[in-house]
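Title: Comparing notes on inverse folding

I've been comparing how different people in this forum approach sequence design from structure. To keep things fair, I'm posting one structure and asking everyone to reply with a full sequence. Here's the target:
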């Protein structure tokens, strides 16, 4: 077998090896982030943090940094979403609709 044929075969194998390695790393990273998003506990509709009606990939990844707690607004059970890093309120949802409610706002007594 000529030397050129051996070198071509080795070069082809190296390209396949690097392609396979890169593809595997890409799949692992994608699955890692998908797992984080799925474990965040938010529904697809809730992850629309900016309220534009569309949940982008960036908003899905942001859901990992968003906490949720149950609150009651006018006797209705709701979900209050806030930033983990500083507690800043993002939104409050009652029955799938965003309501204007901030549990940190000062209340006026009777």
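Reply #1:
Here's my take.
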């Amino acid at each position: 077998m000529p030397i050129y044929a051996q070198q071509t075969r080795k070069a082809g194998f190296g390209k396949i090896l690097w392609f396979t390695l890169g593809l595997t790393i890409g799949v692992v990273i994608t699955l890692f982030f998908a797992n984080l998003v799925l474990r965040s506990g938010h529904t697809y509709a809730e992850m629309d943090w900016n309220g534009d009606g569309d949940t982008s990939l960036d908003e899905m990844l942001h859901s990992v940094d968003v906490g949720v707690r149950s609150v009651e607004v006018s006797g209705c059970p709701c979900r209050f979403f806030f930033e983990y890093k500083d507690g800043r309120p993002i939104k409050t949802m009652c029955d799938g609709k965003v309501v204007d409610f901030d549990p940190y706002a000062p209340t006026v007594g009777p």
